[in-house]
Design goal:
Helix content: 25-40%
Number of helices: 8
Number of strands: 10
Length: 260
């Protein structure tokens, strides 16, 4: 999505991965700034709670647009999906499918998307007179990039006196990692545990069982973020009106969340 807009407008794209490291994010941004890039699109790393490196670039006039993982402290364009809506609909779907002990496998508490998705999850439970159980919420700080943290979270859920009968997962890697862990434990999805998760991956329909997902409009997000960045880059006057675009996710129901 980013490249489709950038290349059509005569810009090249440099991609850098922080791998959820704050230190690497800082180094990557410093490198890009030193190469005199025209602007920066960024989705914050799991470890990023100190925004001084971004604020310094922003204050110097570097065009910056945040997407997916954002922070309100930086006064610039942002592109996100409606995380609350996606999580609410996913949780409500599990409830309407007959599941009542619904756990949440979430990412870092630092991230805006974690808070928004857990809010949707908890409000959906409350709307159906189900009391959120703190023990059912497990955080994986690196969002599934470290596989052992998923295994540890699942183990905690499965050793509870009252085990969950469904899991809502808040990110792509957590969703696929959760399914893999449950299979290795000899558990059948959805017979033993139902599963719904956020994902952009096309493999959701190919795995066994096919996964119910909240599909994020990733390509649309990339296009929107790039359009806003180029607006900043090419504007001859300071951009005063800051825009926050909120895109709508789609719940795609498959067999991983349906009672057998």
């Amino acid at each position: 999505g980013i490249e489709s807009i950038a290349y059509d407008r005569g810009y090249n794209v440099i991609v850098s991965q922080s791998r959820e490291s704050y230190d690497r994010e800082v180094i990557d941004l410093q490198y890009m700034a030193s190469r005199s890039v025209d602007g920066i699109l960024i989705s914050l790393s799991t470890e990023t709670s100190d925004l001084s490196h971004l604020m310094a670039l922003h204050d110097r006039g570097m065009p910056i647009v945040l997407f997916a993982r954002v922070h309100e402290e930086i006064d610039t364009h942002k592109v996100i999906i409606d995380n609350y809506k996606g999580a609410y609909e996913a949780t409500e779907h599990l409830i309407k499918s007959g599941f009542t002990r619904i756990a949440a496998l979430a990412g870092s508490e630092f991230l805006s998307i974690t808070a928004e998705r857990l809010a949707g999850y908890q409000d959906a439970l409350g709307a159906h007179n189900l009391i959120p159980n703190k023990q059912y919420i497990q955080h994986c700080f690196y969002g599934g990039m470290v596989f052992s943290e998923i295994e540890e979270a699942i183990n905690k859920l499965l050793t509870l006196k009252q085990k969950p009968d469904a899991i809502f997962s808040t990110s792509d890697k957590l969703t696929t990692g959760c399914l893999s862990t449950l299979k290795r434990r000899g558990l059948h999805v959805p017979k033993d545990l139902a599963l719904v998760g956020f994902s952009n991956s096309d493999i959701a329909d190919l795995v066994d069982p096919p996964l119910t997902i909240i599909r994020q409009p990733a390509e649309e997000m990339g296009r929107a973020a790039t359009e806003l960045l180029l607006q900043l880059v090419e504007s001859k006057r300071p951009v005063i009106k800051i825009e926050k675009r909120v895109l709508t996710p789609e719940l795609q129901i498959r067999s991983s969340s349906l009672k057998i």
